Amino acid sequence: MNTISPDQSPEKYEDKHVHEVYEQIASHFSSTRYKPWPIVQRFLQELPSGSVGLDVGCGNGKYLTVNPNVFIVASDRSENLVKIAGQHRPHSSVIADNLSLPHPSSFFDFAISVAVVHHLSSHLRRVQAIAAILETLRPAPEPEQSGPDSKHVGGKALIHVWALEQKTSRRGWDEGDEQDVMVPWVMKTKSTQLSNEKSETFHRYYHLYRKGELEGDVAEAGGRVVESGYEKDNWWAIAVRNK
User: Fold this and answer.
1) Does pLDDT of 153 surpass 80?
2) 5-17 as b/e: b if 16+ CB within 10 A
């Protein structure tokens, strides 16, 4: 089980066990992240041409090239990952914290948050992170105003997080296991003078979402889930912002 010591704030805890780690492993991490998750690819490819949106916690920016007909403002806490994402023109990338996004409210057509929210170390902070994303979206009209066949549903966000239910994966987590865990990242490097390889292990904090938990967090954040599901060790939800 992972715990935060009483004298340590969540911000400092995440700095040590999330942000500092990704700054150190950015290049190695980026080299392993190139294939998009199918649900994220589908979400982006179904967007209308000319849509403008956000990739919050963009990592190396691998989703910026999925749909050339939309424009994305990407952001991440890691300066080194933002530099890598910045190579994907014409999209823009900025350093930003999920809990204080530097974007106008009620403006964007869409947002994606892939493997980000689960790095927040408390329930409140995870809900606040989702709320911050929803706040940037164009509000959805009330169901009675939009009608059953209306396509004017406002902006929508795709939230994608690690699942607790991973019993068929190499990690083997499942219902009943601890939800707050430290996950190792092993970075191997070759010596410039010797042919042997050396490795260094970093540990990252994750909150593993159980079934139904993500939908609950979205509702608590002021959103409405329009579609959700499970995709290979991950839970995902597509949500719109309530007025």
Assistant:
1) no
2) eeeeeeeebbeeb
